[in-house]
Design brief:
alpha+beta; 8-stranded antiparallel sheet; Protein Transport Mog1p, Chain A; 224 residues
């Protein structure tokens, strides 16, 4: 972020979107929103076909990305939300290496990962080595789009700052998707309850009387 801070001081023009001190920050292209700590500035590095924002201060730096995902484009919000398995390590590494200012030599090495399910949308978390300094990252999925953030610090531990940023990352359509996901859950539970009720109400099959074998021929044979 030191490069952006210097550019802001000397008045150098920046790429599309410019630099702005904003909390919250809303993507003009409608792909991602997030809350930036006071004093942070933002620079849109790419606006199409994905959004890439460089955000931070002289001490901390984060790349926030909103990337289209064709795999989940036709998935329901509930299906996306229920996908909470850990991301494959090679997928994490590929995502990190795409942030070339942090990993110019594609040298990202995944050192740890986890899944945080405390929020409505599961959040994948990861730590990387292989850059100039440790990188911490988070990823959330929505129908047709992945929201990611990769951060590092020039001034020691910034875990709390980065956690707050990660938890603030959202999509402008989240309220609609959340309502749809909750309705899909309610519909699924209602169907399951109706099926269980129908099963309990169904009459038990009548017991068939035991058919007794006719032993008359055997008695006749014995008499003879």
């Amino acid at each position: 972020m030191r490069g952006i801070a210097l550019a802001a001081v000397i008045g150098v023009g920046l790429v599309a979107g410019g630099v702005a001190a904003a909390r919250p920050w809303n993507d003009p292209n409608g792909r991602v929103n997030f809350d930036a700590p006071a004093g942070w500035i933002m620079e849109v590095r790419r606006a199409s076909p994905q959004t890439i924002v460089l955000a931070g201060s002289a001490d901390n730096e984060c790349y926030v990305l909103a990337t289209p995902n064709s795999v989940t484009a036709n998935s329901t919000p509930d299906a996306v939300r229920r996908t909470a398995d850990p991301l494959a390590p090679d997928a994490w590494t590929t995502a990190a290496n795409s942030v070339t200012p942090m990993f110019p030599s594609h040298s990202a090495q995944l050192t740890s990962q986890s899944v945080d399910t405390s929020g409505f949308w599961p959040m994948q978390r990861a730590q990387f080595s292989g850059a100039e300094r440790p990188v911490t990252a988070a990823l959330q999925s929505r129908p047709g789009i992945d929201l990611m953030a990769f951060c590092w610090s020039y001034a020691g531990d910034a875990t709390a700052t980065f956690d707050a940023l990660f938890r603030s990352v959202s999509h402008p359509n989240d309220a609609t998707w959340q309502a749809a996901a909750e309705q899909q859950v309610a519909d699924r539970e209602a169907r399951a309850a109706a099926a269980a009720t129908a099963s309990e109400a169904a009459p038990a099959p009548e017991a068939q009387p035991e058919r007794r074998r006719d032993i008359t021929p055997d008695l006749r044979q014995r008499r003879n």
